Amino acid sequence: MTYRVLWLQTQQAFDVDSEESVLEAATRHGVDLPHECTFGGCGTCRMKVETGSIAYPDGELPMAMTDEEHAQGYALACQARAQSDLVISVEQGPACSPPQTLTATVVEMALHSPDIYHLALELPAEHGVRYAPGQYLNIALGNGEVRSFSMANPLQGNRISLQIRKIPGGQFTDQMLATTRPGDDLQVELPHGNFHHHAQDYQPMVFAATGTGFSPIRAILESLLDDEDCPPIHFYWGMRSEQDLYLLDELERWSSRLYEFRFIPVLSRPSDAWTGRRGHVQDAITQDFDDLSEHSIYLCGSPRMIEEAKAVLALSGAAMDKIYSDSFLFQNAAAALADAT
């Protein structure tokens, strides 16, 4: 059975067979729907089904789709099969240049904390790259594999900053990066991703990160410094212990340059001396907010945190179309587990 799909924002239309995914059909017809993983894990291909119906092959929701989102009419194009003609709404990505492969030079390496590297790269002169704060790049390992890391700063000339968790036995951090020195070259591809600041919302913002999910949020926050139109911001950062927190002096300095900025670290395994918040970031948010219906929410970090946060924040009135997330799906499993605990 063949159905017709209309993408509302672009007015592009294409045919889809009931046995193929909406994304497969769009790609076949040259329609560039946003996507990344293609197996339902990242949520980049999320679409709103305005009219019509869809189903999933096994009857189960994909990993990156919550019951709350499904109930509000959202679906993942990479897994959804059309059961009728469809009208879909898909947010277009941030204003940026197409991805390109460049040779970047390592200019600085340090440790933010005992297990998180600071890595600064310099792009070639006249590189032509434009990325939105919140996006990420891929670093080539030389064997056909890549590792993905969010840029931790807005683009400033040629300099890009990364925050990278050390993984025991990791091919990149424990082998390649351990022997990398300033002056060495790395092959990078950028920009990628759909995570970015949505200025058009113009409402108070809640940011929540686990681990190095701080990285893209840091880039967004820096881009908002001294912005007179910046709405109030709450930033919840989940880590295990006090020693895992880093760049606290910077966040303190930024507090006077961001409108009504409040930073709330939340530790899951603090020492007895810790007097701050304990537990998980999603629970801390719901403890502080009875009603999130007038807030934009940005989630970045472990897939488990994002899944749980979407569910509990929806109970506090958060609108699914105002929850933006970047799931660190592609990081080493050990890093994902560390960020989730």
Automatic annotation (TrEMBL):
It comes from the Bacteria. The keyword Nucleotidyltransferase does not apply. InterPro entries: 2Fe-2S_ferredoxin-like_sf, 2Fe-2S_ferredoxin-type, 2Fe2S_fd_BS, Beta-grasp_dom_sf, Cbr1-like_FAD-bd_dom, FAD-bd_FR_type, Flavoprot_Pyr_Nucl_cyt_Rdtase, FNR_nucleotide-bd. Keywords: 2Fe-2S, Iron, Iron-sulfur, Metal-binding. Its cofactor is FAD; [2Fe-2S] cluster. Residues 3-94 form the 2Fe-2S ferredoxin-type domain. Residues 99-198 form the FAD-binding FR-type domain. SUPFAM superfamilies: 2Fe-2S ferredoxin-like (SSF54292), Ferredoxin reductase-like, C-terminal NADP-linked domain (SSF52343), Riboflavin synthase domain-like (SSF63380). This is 2Fe-2S iron-sulfur cluster-binding protein. It comes from Acidovorax bellezanensis.
